[in-house]
Amino acid sequence: MAKITLDNLAHSYSPNPSGPEDYALKQLDHDWVDGEAYALLGASGCGKSTLLNIISGLLEPSQGRILFDGVDVTHAPTAQRNIAQVFQFPVVYDTMTVRDNLAFPLRNRGADAAYIAKRVQEIGAMIGMEAVLDRKARGLTADAKQKISLGRGMVREDVNALLFDEPLTVIDPHMKWELRTQLKSLHQQFGHTMIYVTHDQTEALTFADKVVVMYDGRVVQMGTPQELFERPEHTFVGYFIGSPGMNVLAAEVRGDRAVIGGQEIGLGRSFGQPKGRVEVGVRPEFTRLGAEGLPATVKRVEDVGRHKIVRADVGGTEVNVILSEGVPVPADATRIAFAPEGVNVYSDGWRVAPEAATPEGAAA
């Protein structure tokens, strides 16, 4: 297990980068705590696999350093970093049995035969392959082979970190939840530092202690699932996390008031006078239909079982509202209002912190 430090880290695939647009990974300075489970979450091309490959040693960064427990491993090969990595597509030895595939990392390091047998049996049970341990890997399905890859990554207890690069892509949907649960259980049992790359918010939020959201080569927020939901630090986080994502509307903000589409609404808190591209962001869970607020036109209602999603139009912008199960669409649903505790304000994509309230009786 290791604390992983990213120090002034950046990477470009261009031999002569001339500006930020040439960097697949823009400057990062982060400490990732020893023993925590992290998910790197973002859309394709945001830089998450590049970062994972730098941590594993498959790629050397254009600038900066990476440290394990304070030791600079920037130029160290993968073998010297004592990590295990599981890739998007299965990598197995077809001519070996499932048992020998799982045992290979331990035998390669000279582990005791009795320990190898015990550990392989444990991992075989964990990935649901006890019954086929003595079967050759050749001929197994893609998802079965990926389970072998997962098992081989987990079989060692002494690794600095376990790295997963979208490992459930080829796994049947009904198995994904089970394997995520098993990975979480493994982390709780052994306390490995784990980093899990995915574009699937469900995988990230159910697996990780901390989710690292990446956008355009940058880490735009790192936090718990609750923090990402309640206080998205960037509009991309609000859009990417949640189903549906956060409503974002262009606005003019002055103190505790906002003008959206020519209509003034209260924000509940003062946000000063932000400059640049100013937007108000509110999640559908904090959005209400009724007779007060911004004029809105209901376009359609989607019943997804647990709740209803109301798709409405507010001055040309789609706004989503979530209604609890059994709650009907109000007959007077001509306007949309926002719960003050759910309102966020953004300037050029980044969250603006509300101003501290003036104590009662103090000079304004």
Summarize the structure in words.
It comes from Jannaschia seohaensis. The chain is of the alpha+beta class and 364 residues long. It folds into 2 domains: 4-230, Rossmann fold (3-Layer(aba) Sandwich); 243-352, OB fold (Dihydrolipoamide Acetyltransferase, E2P). The chain is 23% helix and 32% strand. The strands form 6 sheets. A 6-stranded mixed beta sheet has the order 6-7-8-3-9-10, sandwiched between helices. A hairpin with a 2-residue loop joins β19 and β20 (317-324). α2 crosses α3 (113-126) and α2 packs parallel to α4 (142-154). It is globular and about 75 Å long. The model has no long low-confidence stretch (mean pLDDT 90).
What topology emerges from the helices and strands here?
Layout lengths: L3 E8 L13 E8 L4 E5 L6 H9 L6 E6 L2 E2 L10 E4 L11 H11 L4 H14 L15 H13 L6 E5 L7 H18 L2 E6 L2 H7 L2 E6 L2 E6 L1 H6 L4 H6 L6 E4 L1 E3 L2 E4 L2 E4 L11 E5 L4 E4 L3 E2 L1 E7 L3 E8 L2 E8 L10 E4 L4 E5 L2 E3 L12
Parallel strand pairs: 3-8, 3-9, 6-7, 7-8
Antiparallel strand pairs: 1-2, 1-4, 4-5, 9-10, 11-15, 12-13, 13-14, 15-22, 16-21, 17-21, 18-19, 19-20, 22-23
Helix pairs in contact: 2-3, 2-4
Which CATH architecture of the largest domain would you pick?
3-Layer(aba) Sandwich
Helix fraction? Answer: 10-25%
**What is the domain total for the residues?**
2
Could you tell me the radius of gyration in angstroms?
25 Å
> Structural class, please?
alpha+beta
- CATH class term of the largest domain: Alpha Beta
- The rounded distance between the terminal residues' Cα atoms is 52 Å
The count of strands amounts to 23
CATH superfamily of the largest domain: P-loop containing nucleotide triphosphate hydrolases
> Which consecutive residue ranges, at least 5 long each, have pLDDT under 50?
none
Q: How many strands, which pairing sense, and closed or not: the largest β-sheet?
A: 6 strands, mixed
- Tell me the number of helical segments per DSSP (H or I, 4 or more residues long): 8
Which of globular, elongated, flat, extended, rod-shaped describes the shape? globular
Walk across the major sheet and give the strand order.
6-7-8-3-9-10
**What is the residue-averaged pLDDT?**
90
In oligomeric terms, what are we looking at? single chain
Percent range for β-strand residues: 25-35%
